[in-house]
Design brief:
This protein is α+β, with helices and mostly antiparallel strands. It has one domain. It is built from 2 helices and 3 strands. The chain has a 3-stranded antiparallel beta sheet, with no helix packed on it. It is flat, with a radius of gyration of 15 Å.
Length: 68
């Protein structure tokens, strides 16, 4: 694994501990929910997305394409 991902319920929490631990805020979910396979059900809680790179060159590895 190159990255860890976590979702924070923005209506209940501010993500302060993640920001203090150098997690990177990358945006928000659309509020669809995990089980919405047909892209119809909205109204779930919108969450903040944070990533934490496990290696220093995670972005470069992800952008370089598949390795053989």
């Amino acid at each position: 694994p190159l990255l860890l991902e976590t979702l924070v319920d923005a209506s209940r929490f501010r993500g302060t501990c993640y920001r203090a631990a150098n997690w990177i805020y990358v945006g928000q979910t659309t509020g669809r929910g995990r089980m919405d396979r047909e892209h119809k059900a909205h109204g779930q809680v919108i969450k903040d997305i944070y990533l934490y790179p496990l290696v220093s060159d995670a972005k470069q590895r992800l952008c370089s394409g598949p390795t053989r």
